[in-house]
Design goal:
This protein is α+β, with helices and mostly antiparallel strands. It has five helices and ten strands. A hairpin with a 3-residue loop joins β4 and β5. α2 packs across α4 and α2 crosses α5. The longest helix is centred in the middle third of the chain and has 17 residues. The chain binds biotin. The site of biotin (BTN) has 20 residues, from α1, β3, β6 and β7.
Length: 226
């Protein structure tokens, strides 16, 4: 493995959340920079906005990556979201799947969610001291209780070897998380789901029509109202 991500791997049978496990390893100083925590199952998988992440046992990737950046300012932390989303899109491309990013960091294939990312950063003053990059990626699950989900196996009609998918993903992260701000922002914008297409959105004022045009340097979505 070239790069820090994946040099140290913890393989667990079951855990509450790999992100929580990673946080504990960091506070107990028991892991290296770039450590990866994988679990066959999570009893309390965390999603964005306080949601749960539910995933069948041994069928998918439930993984957290510990990253201690050299010198990353708080305003640069958005590059972690961009780099991780791009790594997943590029990994899927290697498997012949064309994916897009539904803002901020859901990965979609043909209007179905295949992967979600939960990044939890620890800050020290104006710097990012640790980042826990949590990734849920549907690999071999064939049935979902909700309709708008898919997996690599469903898209390709073929069960995959989880370790192979994981290694390809880590290789992509080892490359993309070290790219510069402008590169990542442009690439991320080019992969935004529904970009330039008239769509319906909702804000505090209600439902409106508009087009996604890109993101700000802070990572906020830019929508032009019709
Ligand atoms: C989302 O789409 O809401 C984000 C889902 C993130 C799920 C992953 S699975 C591995 C890691 N551990 C967690 O508890 N959550 C993330």
């Amino acid at each position: 493995m070239k790069g820090i991500f994946g040099v140290q791997i913890f393989n667990l049978d079951e855990v509450d959340s790999t992100n929580n496990f990673a946080a504990k390893l960091i506070s107990d100083q028991l892991c290296q920079n770039g450590a990866v925590i994988m679990s066959d199952y999570q009893t309390l998988g965390k999603g964005q906005r306080g949601n749960h992440w539910i995933s069948n046992k041994r069928e998918n990737i439930m993984m957290s990556v510990v990253y201690q950046p050299d010198n990353m300012s708080v305003s640069e932390q958005i590059t972690l979201t961009w780099g991780t989303s791009l790594a997943i899109v590029e990994l899927l491309a290697e498997f012949g799947i064309s994916a897009q990013v539904k803002w901020p960091n859901d990965i979609y294939v043909n209007r179905k969610k295949i992967s979600g990312v939960l990044i939890e950063n620890q800050l020290m003053g104006q710097r990012v001291s640790f980042s826990i990059i949590g990734i849920g990626l549907n690999v071999n699950q064939l049935e979902f209780s909700f309709t708008n989900a898919t997996s690599i196996a469903l898209e390709k009609n073929k069960i995959q070897i989880i370790e192979e998918v994981r290694n390809t993903l880590l290789a992509k992260m080892n490359d993309l998380l070290f790219k510069d701000f402008i590169f990542l922002k442009q690439k991320y914008e080019s992969l935004l789901f529904l970009k330039d297409l008239e769509s319906e959105f909702e804000d505090e004022q209600g439902v409106f029509k508009g087009k996604i045009k890109g993101v700000t340097d802070e990572g906020l979505l830019i929508i032009w109202k019709e």
